[in-house]
Amino acid sequence: MMKLGIKTGFKRCVWALALSVAGIGVAQAGPIFDEFGALPGVEFGGDGIPNGAVAISRAQTSAGELTLGITAHQRFVGPNLQNDGAGTFIADTGTNFSPGGTEGAVWNFAFHINLEGQGTTFDDLVGAGYSFQLAYDVDPGNGTDFGILLFDPFLGGLATIEGSQNLLFGFLFDDDLPFITAPSGGFNPNVAGLYSFELSAISPTGGTVLAAIDVRVVPVPASLGLLGLGLIGFGFMRRRKSVH
Q1: Where are the transmembrane segments (predicted)?
Q2: pTM score of the predicted model
Q3: How far apart are CA 136 and CA 182, in angstroms?
């Protein structure tokens, strides 16, 4: 499993150049997927992380089938996040603490990249010029302040890479890490807004496989109201379906 806290002697300027050469751009806001639903058997690098509401995109490559999956989920306590069935999740403002005492927003974003092929690993694709990244949004309004997490240096020998992260984790804002281009601002978990996350695989010819979600963060009473409206709408849909 990839360890997201590893440091080397490379600096941000090296990876900024690498991002430019690879043609990696800043994320586009808005859910993007081939399908939205369950990704069975995927754990996102943790225990008990729901895998039933995932933005999934797939592509055939020379090394096998590539699958990208990205989702959002509640952190440690409380019910799982609600979603609109089309890639937008509803989360509360505020923070909580891990058993080890690490503070985080009450929700996480989680990703999964898998290459399915006989005896193949990401070495085959990275060697052929593919690049893999996760863009994470820290701006609650305009959707432009993205950090970029580049996976390429840590894919050697792997066929699956996954993890669950939180926008309050400090390393995501540290330019000294070799595979992170940090956003210019910070993240305030008590500010409501819309946050976007985009997982992408870029081919050497410039083709891109994308899986992206939005997380709409609202104050707790508002989230309960949205859930109530969703249940009312669901009940209305069921009544309409029962009419013959």
Answers
A1: 218-237
A2: 0.80
A3: 9
DSSP secondary-structure letter at 32? B
3-state SS assignment for residue 152:
helix
Residue 233 in any domain: the answer is no
Is the CB of residue 215 less than 8 Å from the CB of residue 91? yes
Beta strands in the chain (DSSP E): 35-37, 54-61, 64-74, 82-83, 88-92, 95-97, 103-105, 107-116, 131-137, 146-150, 160-165, 180-181, 193-202, 208-218
Backbone angles phi, psi at 153, to 5 degrees: -65, -15
CA distance 93 to 168: 12
In a domain, 235, yes or no: no
Domain that holds residue 35: 12-218
Radius of gyration of the chain (CA): 18
Distance of CA 173 to the CA centre of its chain: 16
| Per-residue b or e along 140-170, where b marks 16 or more CB atoms closer than 10 Å to that residue's CB | beebebbbbbbbbebbeebbbbbbbbbbbbe
User: What is the residue type of 130?
Assistant: Y
Domain count, the chain: 1
Please check whether residue 53 lies inside any domain of the structure. yes
Q: Any residues with CB less than 8 A from the CB of 224 and at least 6 apart, and which?
A: none
Helix (H) or strand (E) holding 124: helix 122-127
pLDDT at 141 > cutoff 70: yes
> Which pLDDT tens digit goes with each residue over 82-127?
999 999 999 999 999 998 999 999 999 999 999 998 778 899 899 8
Residue 234: inside a domain, yes or no?
A: no
